[in-house]
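SAMPLE LOG
Freezer: B-3
Tube label: C17
Construct: single chain, 320 aa
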Amino acid sequence: MTTTVVPVRREKRARKGGTEPSARRIALAPYLLILGAVLVLLLGMGYPVVWQIVTSFQKYGALQQLGGKAPDFVWFDNYIAIAGNSTFWAVVTRSVIFCLVTAFITIVIGVLLALLMTKVHAVARFVLQIALLLAWAMPVIAAMTVFIWLFDRQRGVVNYLLSLIPGVDMNGFNWIGTTPLLFFTVASIIIVWMSVPFVAFSAFAGLTQVSGEVLEASHLDGAGAVQRFRFIIFPVLKPVIAIVLLLNLIWDLRVFAQITLLQDAGPKSTDYDLLGTYIYKTGVAGLDFGGGAAMSIFVLALTIALSWFYVRNLVKEESR
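STRUCTURE (predicted):
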């Protein structure tokens, strides 16, 4: 009996010793692969975030920026100041509404364009994709120059085309400086135009995972276009729509260049500000870096709050 048991035990030990190192290497491999990206993020973003947090608790103005005086810690005074600032809260409300509206419109138009690309001929689809790619690749400054010219009150193409309608006279109409509503309508058009290509390409990639046989069978069974989209297409696109919606909410909440360039061509009042431009005017132009840092930390918290719903659902799906 001893001659048969000992070899088996040695064989088990040999197997155990041979498999443990390889299993450990396989388990550590994913962490080693993402280590470089994590280090880059910590070095590239960690220091600015830490600096913003520290500065938000300080009185940091022009003297401190020039090195003439060390910043004094005022702790939560900057946060208390912005909490009692009615203008800041008006800008926050305006920014949240703006990002929600523009993100929703962008998702709807992007998904519709993706569905259109699956129905048209290959040549038409190629032309549409090239047009979307060019719109997406156009630099912000170049795009804003074109849009400001389009909505120019004297020589704008929009006013010219609208004036061709009988009974309509739009010559000299100021789209940018008349009311904040018209200003942000123009801004929304620009933001949506710049963001739609990314959503359309992402949704089109997701549509390639929809089974053509299932769509054909549902059509033969009498399902309409709305039913096919609701019960077959949308469940496949749901993860893609969730991530692009989250990204658009974050991008539209932090929009800065487009609003700044529109304000350069029109009014510069705080009624035409979003969070990005208001924080810039407070922190950089107003030389109140402590207050601007406190507002930036608030925007970071607001971004996390807006994205929490998606992150929570992602964690639930991963746990399943």
